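Course assignment 3, question 2. Fill in each field.
Student: A.L.
Task: Predict the tertiary structure for the chain below.
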Amino acid sequence: MFIHAIASHEAMQNTLYETLLQSGLSLTTSMVRGPDLRLQPWIELTLHEAAAGDVLLIDIPLTTSKDDLSALQNWLSTRPDLHVMALSEDNSPSFLLQAKRSGVREVLALPLNPQEILEGIARGATRAALQTIRPAPTPVPPQADLAPPPNGKLMAFMATKGGNGSSFIAANIGHILATEFDRSCAFVDMDLQCGDASFYLSSGSHTNSLFDLTRQIDRLDVQLLASCMHAVTPRLGLLAAPHEMESALTITARDIEKVLNIVQCQYEQILVDLPRTLNILSLKVLDMADVIYIVTQCNTPDVRDAQRLVSTLRALGYSDNKLRLLVNQHTKGSWVSVAELEKAVGLKVTHTLPSNPQWVNEALHTGKPLAAVHDHNGVMHALREMAGALLDTAPTKNRHWLQRWMGQHA
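Answer field:
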């Protein structure tokens, strides 16, 4: 792994050089932009010198940040193997998210903290060490052009705070769609750091994961996808998050796009559980999603976080028609009423799930779908109503125990 730098002035170049030198590191290439500060010619030269797994440090001035990020997005789409770190005085959420969208792995605030830059380089080194050498792409036969385009409906689930239950809801909606509405469903766990959503459906009893697909991305096909999907039921497949957190460092936004495209070709309904923090991978999912479910609760901290998240999503260009506000664990006498939540966030609440800790906790601790633990409760009723709304149809009512048993074992 080598370290490259593009600075906007000589003082920044010297600062980077001295910071690295104190830790026994050095810059392989170092450039200072010309008087007009245009980034494009300098990044062309640097990318020509940089190899897979290298670290690229880029000083982004406030006056050129928009043009810089645009240039980075064009060039880094062809070089996802680089660990790019942007140095900027702009710490606004819009800049951070646009930087992530452009392919930047990390944003470090100026003035520079030496410890932060060294830790970022260490993460880049870890990612480079884990990067799997991929085989040359297999030539695509001409008839492959006739393959049907992706048509499965993709639903993304995000929580405003940890513990709001978005993973539990997404997993159980998928189970209901598959077992009660007879739809082919895929549940994709994209919380690559925690990755516990798959436990809600399988007790963690799966061997392959998303990482097993992305490390062989150039030969991704229907057979490879099927080998990595855990069959929860005959109509519900689970694509788990990587077992090791380090494995997630090698996954790129382009990998995610390819995986989800082929999943959409094979399944009618795709439910993707996302982390509560936005990054380049989750932004790719949000771009592809037909619907984005924002899961919150009627507590004051949750409302503030919901406001921030919705405001950020709107700033990134996602329309309100794509956003769905969902209240979980709702109880009478909550600190914030549903009407107050709607007014604060600026979105109507589309679904409300009641609090029923007895059965929900049993499902969580046993790693079973809620329907398998207790089929008749307020949460199950609300989840069925939500699943029916997704398909624009009425949920099945009062199913006989034999029908439920046959649906789970068919």
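Instructor remarks: The longest strand covers residues 323-330. The longest helix spans residues 114-130.
Grade: pending
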